[in-house]
């Protein structure tokens, strides 16, 4: 009970057209437009639900909201009490925000690094199937994100002690993976001087879907920031592209699930094979 899964991410972006082109041509992800106040927001349709990523036109590129789906209104009330007891101020989302999210209830608070975190009850299923690229099912949903920033211990306490996420594994000196369901992780936290999203992961149905996306990225001259590889901890096969806002999108499949008997551990090195970085890797294993 409690938080069930990662529901959606909202981003302030300076180039909505470039994002839409990347999502459509390379990843086969359909985008619809909706009104939010005076803005026209682009909604990326990763699966059969209304959207998983919202792109808000802005003069800066930055995270706008991080949305988690909660099981029931009673659980939303319980988590609200836990947040309030921990010193967070929890506010109600507006009717317009609930409508855009497809939620029946919506509350939000600000996390220790300044990001808006939303807790939503309900998801709007608006199609029987999302648009797919030729040759395969393509994306199947939103997987996880990695958040880097200061105040790492406070962020850990928020997600692990207050929101009841479970630590799956970690890598010294400061990279932690947390889950809210059987999926290996829905969020990872890392230390950094400035808060940012390191990457956002889109789930795909098979290695062939990932491979086709890789071919389209190469054909469309999309910057591949981290090459194809398999992670050591969750065993996912993926590659990464640099998106128009400057951080990474991970295109992956085949991550493992874990049970209640899972024991958190340091998984040592980051990858089984591959995942060569075009630029310096901030999470590289420390040199001995």
UniProtKB/TrEMBL annotation:
Q: A single GO molecular function, which one?
A: dioxygenase activity
Q: Which UniProt keywords apply?
A: Aromatic hydrocarbons catabolism, Dioxygenase, Iron, Metal-binding, Oxidoreductase
Per its UniProt entry, which superkingdom is the organism in?
A: Bacteria
Q: Which organism is it from?
A: Nonomuraea fuscirosea
From the Swiss-Prot or TrEMBL record, give the protein name. Answer: Extradiol dioxygenase
Per the entry, which co-factors are needed?
A: Fe(2+)
Return the InterPro entries for the record: Glyas_Bleomycin-R_OHBP_Dase, Glyas_Fos-R_dOase_dom, VOC_core, Xdiol_ring_cleave_dOase_1/2
Domain (VOC): residue spans on this chain: 5-122, 141-254
Q: What family does this belong to?
A: Belongs to the extradiol ring-cleavage dioxygenase family.
Phylogenetic lineage: Bacteria, Bacillati, Actinomycetota, Actinomycetes, Streptosporangiales
């Amino acid at each position: 009970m409690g938080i069930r899964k990662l529901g959606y991410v909202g981003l302030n972006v300076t180039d909505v057209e470039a994002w839409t082109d990347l999502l459509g041509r390379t990843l086969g992800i359909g985008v619809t437009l909706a009104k939010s106040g005076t803005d026209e927001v682009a909604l990326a349709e990763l699966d059969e639900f209304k959207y998983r990523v919202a792109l808000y036109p802005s003069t800066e590129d930055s995270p706008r909201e991080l949305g988690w789906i909660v099981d029931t209104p009673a659980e939303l009330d319980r988590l609200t009490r836990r947040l309030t007891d921990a010193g967070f101020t929890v506010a109600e989302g507006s009717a317009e925000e609930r409508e855009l999210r497809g939620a029946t209830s919506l509350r939000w608070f600000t996390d220790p690094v300044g990001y808006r975190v939303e807790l939503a009850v309900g998801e709007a299923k608006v199609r029987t199937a999302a648009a797919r690229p030729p040759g395969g099912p393509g994306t199947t949903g939103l997987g996880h994100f990695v958040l880097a920033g200061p105040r790492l211990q406070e962020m850990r306490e928020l997600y692990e002690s207050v929101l009841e996420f479970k630590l799956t594994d970690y890598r010294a000196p400061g990279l932690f993976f947390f889950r809210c369901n059987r999926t290996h992780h829905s969020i990872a936290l890392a230390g950094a001087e400035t808060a940012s999203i390191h990457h956002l992961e889109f789930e795909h149905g098979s290695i062939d879907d990932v491979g086709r996306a890789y071919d389209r990225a190469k054909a469309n001259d999309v910057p591949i920031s981290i090459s194809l590889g398999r992670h050591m901890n969750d065993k996912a096969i993926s590659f990464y592209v640099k998106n128009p806002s400057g951080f990474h999108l991970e295109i992956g499949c085949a991550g493992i699930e874990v049970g209640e008997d899972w024991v958190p551990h340091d998984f040592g090195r980051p990858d089984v094979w591959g995942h060569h970085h075009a630029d310096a890797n901030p999470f590289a294993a420390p040199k001995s």
